[in-house]
Design goal:
Length: 240
Amino acid sequence: MAIANKKKPRRIVLKLSGEALMGKKEAGIDSKIIKDIASDVKALAKSNIQVGIVVGGGNFFRGAMLNGDGISRITGDHLGMIATMLNALAMQDIFTSLGIPTKTMSALPIDGIIERYDCRKANNYLVGGFVVIFAGGIGSPLVTTDTALCLRGIELGADLLLKATNVDGIYSKDPKKNRDAKLYRRLTYGQALAENLGVMDLSAFCLGRDHKMKLRVFNIRKKGALLRIIQGLDEGTLVE
Ligand code: UDP
């Protein structure tokens, strides 16, 4: 699919949650979902859009959930960061098998398996036509990979940040629990912070606000949603 030049971003960073990779499974990875995502990413790469992907780990572990039962929050967060690496490695293989040149970098490297994140190197990979998967979040506990999305996007000068979820965007309340939850089409970072919308870490919202990043939250399960956003069409919630 060719993407019109008019509103096309040059570089995007996309955050894929572990939940998004799970499909209908209860945990782990559904390779069919990753293949579908790969096909969209391939279309972006063909249109010369540079793609970085921050991957979550919630399909295996989330520190805040593990906390208790003898596991400290910090150890839980360490497990969560390791979980992002499991997803990244699986994604890298599937992307590569589909002919997408892919590199994985992690804030917490694994010698011989995943190289350490380095902003300049990541920039060179993106310019060189690789999709770069960012694992390990920011490498520190007490935040989630949403903060990594904003941080990597800012460091790498992305034109657009995308947060893929399993709902249609940002709602006034949790839409799974509240039938009267309202879907926002546009939001300012100030509003998101004032209303304490729990859709991302507050640190992520603050980074996005302070660095004037454009962020779109959208439903990855909606076929073609990613490509529609790149074409400049209204999809999900725009935060700026
Ligand atoms: N995590 C962390 N530091 C980071 C990124 C992630 O400690 O910079 C931990 C945290 O416990 C988080 C878990 O890793 O809950 C998995 O990441 P996240 O919740 O973002 O995954 P997602 O919900 O997007 O799948």
